[in-house]
Amino acid sequence: MYLTLMYDYYGELLTPRQQEIMKLYFFHDLSLGEIAEKLDISRQGVYDHLHRSEDILRTYENKLQLVEKNRELRDFIENFTKEIKTEDLKKETKELVLSRLEELEDLI
Question: What is the pTM of this model?
Answer without folding.
Answer: 0.75
